[in-house]
Amino acid sequence: MTIIGALTSHLDPLTLLITVVVGLGMYLLYWSTCVQRFSSRNVPPYPIRPWPLCGHLFMLTKQPLEQLQKWRQKTGDVFSLDFAGRHMVVVNGFESLKDLLVKKADKLARPETFLMRLHGDYGLGIINSYGANWKEQRTLSLSILRAFGMGRNVIAQKIDEEVEVFINELAKFRGQPCDVKLLVHTSVANVLNSIIIGQRYEHGDPQFGHFLRLLNNLIARIAGTSVLNHFRLLRYLPGDPFEANVLKKLASELKSMLMRFITRERKKVEESEKTNTDSEDSTERVNFIYEYFKEKKAREARRENTRLDENNLSAIINNLFGAGSETSGNTVLFFMLHMLHRPEEQEVIYAEIKDVVGTHRRPNMQDKPRLNYLNAAIMETQRLSNIAPIGLQRLVLSDIEIKGYTIPAGTIVMPILDSSLKDEQTWGDPENFRPSRFLADDGSLLQPEQFIPFSFGKRVCLGEALARMELFLFLSALMQKFRLEQEADDLPDTSGIYGITISPKPFKVRMIEREGIP
Ligand code: HEM
């Protein structure tokens, strides 16, 4: 719902008038101090004069990336925007992004959003925290995930279990046109279930279905409430026109579901301590929550000062599900879309798999270094159809210099990852899907430093290794087993829909089984 729609349908004329007058007065007051504050400093310029009250906010609604690129051409790599009185700075281009995200990383935190305030999780977990707490939570989370990926590689095993179900479910369509979105997202969420809570669910399980609906419902509503980040007064409007209370209810239901798993695993750790039965081989034991508690207990036993606790753990689980399901799922879907557009690329990938792996077994992680064309096609999907093109925002803690401009403390910075992934000078023809750009003349895989779909610096995506493994195992099995064919004469569009991440528009595909694949 638009602001105007929400205001007019929920307020009587007098309240509306008072709201407008008070809002305007506050804005003018803010604006005059804002102009004074910035006029004396070397801050990045505006590309265009901001509108009263909302600044540039509503100039960015429909195709934000395209608009940001137009402004970049006019103003340069680094420019300012005004979001309802809040100073924002947009940073483009590989060198400026590196300066910001790698060299100046210590002077950056995350800004608090309305949603974080609603959840009460600003400063908790990984995504929304910074400083010492972020460091402790991130370091432990990463080391748990790394340990799962080492030796017998529990993560690869868990993904492979899910891949088998995924492939069998796809085969059930028997080449009929199907919308695979739910299947893809369910499979990817199930990988996270296995890793985080230690159990997977059957597709169609009512409890899992409820969890997925909650998560999707929550994610779908977040974009609608983002206006509240900038117009704080609107939070107090009667009638909940932006559904903030619905969001709060959904979030607390999700949290209490997760708390049940947290309690279960805490009890398991306490039980195993009492009975001394913590067997290394127990696959049931291998889950993120259990390992987190085990480490918490160990630090407490050593009387270390630790911030490991249930509030941080619950925030981390939210972070992992929030950041880890849509992202990988949408990348799988974009890959399928690009394959539909390019039957000839499908045949190259299939021939490579047939040559390296054969058709008697599914590809595994040992095959990955030898399936370079497939790896290049996955990278090209992530470059061209990046699901997080605007990156994650930063809050500047103390003044920094980028490209000769001063970005003052308190500013929110938007790092535009797409500006590196689609840079014409780097890629030549950035708008074309051309996997061979990632291959050297001898067929080996290139890793250009400008390829940053997972961002870079100390805040680089925590799930990068997991996501790469998922993408490889799901997509190699998919390309080995099926040829993808379009449903109708018109090929589905490869452009995305803006939300929390970029997702493909709904499409149908025929999954045609190749001969002789298990
Ligand atoms: C194709 C899949 C994925 C892509 C493209 C992706 C991309 C990103 C990007 C661009 C960021 C922002 C980094 C920054 O702030 O500069 C990020 C952060 C993060 N991602 Fe991912 N991600 C993916 C999958 C995953 C998965 C599978 C997980 C975990 C299960 C995950 C967990 C996280 C977390 C926890 C952060 C916050 C890191 C921090 O603030 O320290 N991501 N991701």
Present as ligands are:
protoporphyrin IX containing FE
Query: How many strands appear in the DSSP assignment?
Result: 11
Mean pLDDT rating: 88
Order of helices and strands: HHHEEHEHHHHHHHHHHHHEEEEHHHEEEE
What's the total helix number? Answer: 19
Using the CA coordinates, give the radius of gyration: 24 Å
- Assign an overall shape: globular
Provide the spatial order of strands within the biggest beta sheet.
1-2-7-4-3
- Beta-sheet strand percentage? 5-15%
Low-confidence stretches: none
Q: Mind describing the biggest β-sheet?
A: 5 strands, mixed
How far is the first residue's CA from the last residue's CA?
49 Å
Class inferred from helices and paired strands? alpha+beta
Instruction: Provide the helix percentage.
Output: 40-55%
